[in-house]
Amino acid sequence: SGSLHSTSWNLPFLETLDLSHNYFYGSIPDSVSNLTRLHRLSLSTNKFAGSIPNSIGSLSSLEEMYLDSNNLEGAIPASFNGLVSLKRLEIQSNKLSGEFPELGSLKNLSFLDTSDNAITGQLPSTLPISLVQISMINNNLRGTIPESIKYLVNLQVLDLSRNRLGGSVPSLVFNHPSLQQLTLSFNHFTSIQSPETSAIAKSELIAIDLGNNELTGFLPSFMALMPKLSALSLENNRFTGMIPTQYALKTAVPGSGILPFERLLLGGNYLFGAIPGPLMELKPDAANVSLGDNCLYLCDDFIIDTYMTGTLSPYLGNLTNLVILDLSNLKDLKGPIPPEFGKLSRLNLLFLDTNKLTGPIPMTLKHLSLLQKLYLSDNFMSGKIPSSIIGSLTSLSELGLSGNQFSGSIPASVGKLVMLTKLDIHSNNLSGSIPKSIGKLKDLTYLDLSENQITGSIPNSIGGLSALVLIYLNQNQIMGSIPSTISGLVSLQFCRISENKLTGKIPASIGMLSKIQRLIFENNKLSGKLPATIGHLTTLTDIFFSNNHLTGKIPSSFGNLHGLQTLDLSRNRLFGPISPQLANLQMLQSLDLSYNPLGLVSIPNWFAKLKLFKLILAKTGVEGEIPRWLSSSSLSTLDLSSNALTGKLPHWIANMTNLSFLNLSNNGIHSSIPNEFKNLSLLMDLDLHSNKLSGNLNAIFLKETQDPLGHFNSIDLSKNMFTGPIDGNIGERPAMASVTSLILSHNPLGGSIPKSMGKLSELQVLELVDNGLSGRIQEELGDATKLTRILLSRNKLSGAIPEKVLNLKELQEFDVSKNRLSGEIPPHKAHIPASAFMDNPGLCGAPL
């Protein structure tokens, strides 16, 4: 990280400079131009800002330049014409603006990517004829496609999507001698120029995307005659008329020497008439064809009268030859499923998920004996899951009923679905117990019953699901113990049974789950010791056992879990010492042992061997000073709160440059805030409350940051001994631009509330209780429009309460009691009790 401006670049023979994927910031220095023999320059994926220096154009030997994924601004310099050897130029994902310069001098340039910027103006009339690929996605380009494109005889890829181009798509892009991929989607094109018939057969185009424009008229039939075209998107335009027969023939029965359509997207237009027969007769998976959101006949004698909104038509039941019916994700499809759907006896796949359907599952669906996949997820359907339907659909391999309002119990007849591989009924109102018959589903790989009201215990029969890969039973009311038969889940990789009422011990047989990757048992009432057999599960990556009643020591066998990345045993009754075998967990990134009576006294030195990003040891009995080895760690989260730490807040804490969350609250740390603290440029959440810290706190607000990710989110410095005034420019400090919570209560702070606090546009919570603040409540505080809580009691504030502050739209809690305020309380909409204004002798008016 850091700036490059102090670098002299006295490297006259350097040919490659790659500083990509770091945290360098500031502008690109002019001194880079000293590298006169440079062939490759890569500064991508950093935090560089400012403009691209003109001097970079003097690097005449440069062949590749990567400046992408930074914060560069300004125009693309015309001096780039000096890069006469350049073959590849990538400047995408910046903030570049202005018009694109003429770069006709770059005779060797083959690859150009300027995507995701704010470049304006028209496409340049001259571009290097050597170009093979042009990507200028997501800019503000206007105008039309220039005729000069036809002179780029090597061009294979042209992607100008997500701009503001308009007019007619010229015929020259369709009969271009080398173009293979044309993407002009998300623009404002209104028409298409057809090429000469003789030129169509010579077209090299493989993929065309003109979707999401304003194209009108009939579908261009000439595209079906392009011999190599296999992917065509014309969706979400304003085309009318019928689907050309040529499209159907190219999809289903292409002629000799003509590749078929593998992807044909025509949805979201105003097409009408019969779907051509060859499209209706396509075999499943033959091609990806989308015709949705049109006005089409689904067959010769039926008009879909819903236009993909409104309710499902009962006449759909007349399409008795249907094998697949997919009306998913139409958003505005409402009402019940018609009983007539039961007549679709040949149906294999029925997808009605992600709509607004209501009502029960119609009983007639039990006649769909060939149904293999049924998805009704994410609707507003209700009622019970009918036992007779579930028991009849014996061909089902996948059943998705999640995200509805189904109630009642899971029918025991689910055990008849012996071909089922996926059962997903999470997020409903189901009750009762898990049926024992579920153990008969020997092919089941995916089981999600989470977020219901299921009670009872986990049946022993669940151990028979030897193919099961994933089981989610979380957020229910399941009781009893984890059955020892869990050892039978030999294929299990993901197990989540958190947020239930499970009791008893974790069975030792859990050590038989040889493929398990994640065990999530948190928020239950599990007790007893942690089984040492867990140490056999060498595929484990994550253990979440927090908030249970587990006792004893952490087994030393846990040191065998060499792939473990997360270990969360917080809020149990575990005690120490911690086995040094855990130092073997070299993949461990997150360790949370908080709120256990570990009696650590000091954090073991072998912790320094771990490569942690997150360490939480709150309320574990740690004493003494903050250990020095932390200074060389890569931690982003450190929580040592509610311990017995003493000593000073060390200067070396500034070396922990990855810190984003720091909580040292509820300890006995006594010192001032070291000036080096401002070097924690990524720190977002800081909690130092309830210590013995003193001196000026403003060093925190002066934190240096070039990255929005380093803006503070929350600060709590309450219950310390900080003195002096609050920084008058607090609202203008870059680090405070995104702060949502600022708590400075119970300190002997003096001075006034700074006017600039009103510039903290994201601030929601402001607590300055029990300080020595004086002066007026600044009216500018009302500019912080997201404030929900303002607590200013027990200070020496005087003057009137500003009406603008008291009438903040989001305000829910307000307390200025025990001050020296005067005048009438302004009228306000928020419900604020009289106690919030008490003990201000000069204050009057409602609600006092």
From TrEMBL:
InterPro entries: Leu-rich_rpt (IPR001611), Leu-rich_rpt_typical-subtyp (IPR003591), LRR_dom_sf (IPR032675), LRR_R13L4/SHOC2-like (IPR055414). Belongs to the polygalacturonase-inhibiting protein family. This is LRR_1 domain-containing protein/LRR_4 domain-containing protein/LRR_8 domain-containing protein. It is found in: Cell membrane; Membrane; Secreted, Cell wall. It is a single-pass type I membrane protein. Gene3D superfamilies: Ribonuclease Inhibitor. Residues 471-638 form the Disease resistance R13L4/SHOC-2-like LRR domain. GO terms for cellular component: plasma membrane. PROSITE patterns: LRR. It comes from the Eukaryota. Keywords: Cell membrane, Cell wall, Glycoprotein, Leucine-rich repeat, Membrane, Receptor, Repeat, Secreted, Signal, Transmembrane, Transmembrane helix. It holds the Pfam family LRR_1.
